[in-house]
Design brief:
Blueprint: E1 3-8, H1 16-31, E2 35-40, H2 46-57, H3 63-70, H4 72-87, E3 92-95, E4 102-104, E5 113-116, H5 119-126, E6 130-134, E7 137-139, E8 145-147, H6 153-163, E9 168-173, E10 178-179, E11 191-192, E12 194-196, H7 197-205, H8 213-222, E13 226-230, E14 239-242, E15 254-270, H9 275-285, E16 293-295, E17 302-310, H10 314-323, E18 332-345, H11 355-365, E19 372-376, E20 379-385, H12 389-401
Parallel strand pairs: 1-2, 1-9, 2-6, 3-6, 9-13, 12-14
Antiparallel strand pairs: 4-5, 7-8, 10-11, 13-14, 15-17, 15-18, 16-17, 18-20, 19-20
The structure holds adenosine-5'-diphosphate, aspartic acid and magnesium ion.
Length: 402
C-alpha cells in the first residue's frame, strides 16, 4: 500500500461536475489500494473574486484580514469534495490548514511553512479516510490564519508529501504537463516528459505558473517525485519533475513570461561608496522585493540605478523613495509601468555562445524593444512592454524550438 498526495487546482474543481471527475481520480488510487491525501484550491476564479470584493471595501486592507478572507475559497472546496466522495461511498474528511495544523511564519500573503503536524492526518488515514486538505493556507504560532502566496496550493501539496513521506505528489491541472512555453500562448509547444528540479525552479520562478516555485524547492530538498498531469485528458501521462534530467543536450528548455512588472529609475545618485547599499537597505526595510537591477557605470559625479518591482509594490516603493529622496541623494525618481519579463531557460545557457545574439535577433526581427536585460547560468531575461510580451514569447519559441 502506498501513500499518494493528489492536488487539484482551481480549474479542476470549478464546478460540481468537475468535482465528480476529481472524485474519480481519487477512486482510481483507492482501487490500487493506496492511501490518498488530497489538496484542493478554491473553485475557479474564487480567489480573484474575493480580492476584487476586498478592493470594493478598502485599498489598504489589514494583512491579517486579507489572509482570513482569501483563505476562505479553499474551505468551500474541501467540504464540497468530501460530500462528493461520500455520495459515491468513499469515506473522507476535510481539514483546514489550522485544523492540521500547517504551521507557518507570520509573513501574511507570502508565508513559509515551518512544520506540519502529521498526527491528525495519519490517524484519519489509518481509520480509512481520504483526507482532504485546504491548500494555500496555514496558521502562525499565534493562531492567525496565513496564506502561502498566489498559486500556493502546489506548495501545500508537495510539503505534505514531504512531511508524510508519500510515494509521490500528483499535481492535476488543466494542461497535460510542463511544456516549452505556456500552451495558452504557443499552440503546439514541446511537452517535456521529465524536467529536473533545477530547470523547473527556473521555469516557475520566471513565470511558468503551472507550478508554484516554492513547491519545486521543497520537492528538490526532500526528493519528492512530482507529476504534473491533466485532470481532463484521459490517460494523461504528464511530466515528471525529478532529480534526473534527460534533456541535457537541449540548449533551451523553455520560454516564460512574467507580467505586472514596473521599472523604477533613480536618477543622479551621488557616485559614492555606500549609496547603492543605502537605497536597497531602505527598500528591504519596507519589505519591497526587487528583481532586475541595472546600475550605470558611475564614471561621473552621479550614477543612475534602475530596478524592477511587481506592479503591486509600485505605489509603496515610490512613496518610500520620494520620502527619502534627500537621504539617498537622488535627483529624480522615474517609473514605467506595464512591463513583462520574458525569459529563455536552459541548463548551461551561459556557456553557449550565440544564444543571447539569437534571442536579441528574434526580438529585433519582431520590432520588440528591450528595456532591460539580465542573464544567469541558466537563463536570459528581457523586459518588454506588456502588450508585446506574447509576441516576444512566440518569436523566441519560433527561434529556439522550430
Ligand atoms: P491550477 O489552477 O491547476 O493550479 P494554474 O493556472 O495555476 O493551474 O497553472 C496551469 C497553467 O499554467 C496552464 O493553464 C498554463 O496556461 C500555464 N502555464 C504557463 N507556462 C506553462 C508551461 N511552461 N507549461 C505548462 N503550463 C504553463
Ligand atoms: N486559490 C489560490 C490562488 O488562486 C491558491 C491556488 O490556487 O493555488 O492563488
Ligand atoms: Mg496553480
Amino acid at each position: 500500500m502506498g501513500l499518494i498526495v493528489q492536488k487539484f487546482g482551481g480549474s479542476s474543481v470549478a464546478t460540481t461536475e468537475k468535482l465528480k471527475l476529481v472524485a474519480e481520480h481519487i477512486k482510481k488510487e483507492l482501487d490500487l489500494k493506496n492511501q490518498v491525501v488530497v489538496v484542493v484550491s478554491a473553485q475557479g476564479k474564487t480567489t480573484d473574486r474575493l480580492i476584487a470584493e476586498e478592493k470594493e471595501i478598502t485599498k489598504n486592507p489589514s494583512a491579517r484580514e486579507h489572509d482570513v478572507l482569501v483563505s476562505t475559497g479553499e474551505q468551500i472546496t474541501i467540504a464540497k469534495l468530501s460530500m462528493t466522495l461520500a455520495e459515491i461511498g468513499i469515506k473522507a474528511i476535510s481539514l483546514t490548514g489550522w485544523q492540521i495544523p500547517i504551521v507557518t511564519n507570520s509573513n501574511y500573503s507570502n508565508s513559509r511553512i515551518r512544520y506540519i503536524h502529521n498526527e491528525t492526518i495519519t490517524e484519519y488515514l489509518r481509520a480509512g479516510n481520504v483526507v482532504i486538505v485546504a491548500g494555500f493556507q496555514g496558521v502562525d504560532e499565534n493562531g492567525n490564519i496565513t496564506t502561502l502566496g498566489r498559486g500556493g496550493s502546489d506548495t501545500t501539496a508537495v510539503a505534505l508529501a514531504a512531511s508524510l513521506a508519500a510515494d509521490r505528489c500528483d499535481i492535476y491541472t488543466d494542461v497535460d504537463g510542463v511544456f516549452s512555453a505556456d500552451p495558452r500562448i504557443i499552440p503546439e509547444p514541446k511537452k517535456m516528459d521529465t524536467v529536473s528540479y533545477d530547470e523547473m525552479l527556473e521555469l516557475s520562478s520566471m513565470g511558468a505558473k503551472v507550478l508554484h516555485n516554492r513547491c519545486v524547492e521543497i520537492g528538490k530538498k526532500y526528493d519528492v517525485p512530482i507529476y504534473v498531469k491533466s485532470t481532463f485528458e484521459k490517460n494523461s501521462i504528464g511530466s515528471l519533475i525529478t532529480k534526473d534530467n534527460n534533456l541535457e543536450d537541449l540548449v533551451i528548455n523553455g520560454v516564460t513570461k512574467d507580467d505586472y512588472i514596473s521599472r523604477i529609475t533613480v536618477v543622479g545618485l551621488e557616485n559614492k561608496i555606500g549609496r547603492t547599499y543605502s537605497l536597497f537597505k531602505l527598500l528591504s526595510e519596507h519589505s519591497i522585493n526587487v528583481d532586475v537591477i541595472v546600475q550605470s557605470f558611475g564614471e561621473h559625479i552621479t550614477k543612475d540605478l534602475a530596478f524592477t518591482v511587481k506592479m503591486n509594490d509600485l505605489p509603496k516603493t515610490l512613496e518610500v523613495l520620494e520620502q527619502n529622496k534627500e537621504a539617498i541623494s537622488a535627483k529624480e525618481i522615474l517609473h514605467c509601468e506595464n512591463l513583462s519579463k520574458v525569459s529563455i531557460i536552459g541548463v548551461g545557457i551561459a556557456n553557449k555562445p550565440g544564444v543571447a545574439a539569437d534571442m536579441f535577433e528574434a526580438l529585433y526581427e519582431n520590432n520588440i524593444n528591450m528595456h532591460m536585460v539580465t542573464t544567469s547560468e541558466i537563463k536570459i531575461s528581457v523586459l518588454v512592454d506588456a502588450n508585446k510580451a506574447d509576441l516576444a514569447v512566440k518569436a523566441l519559441h519560433e527561434k529556439f524550438f522550430k
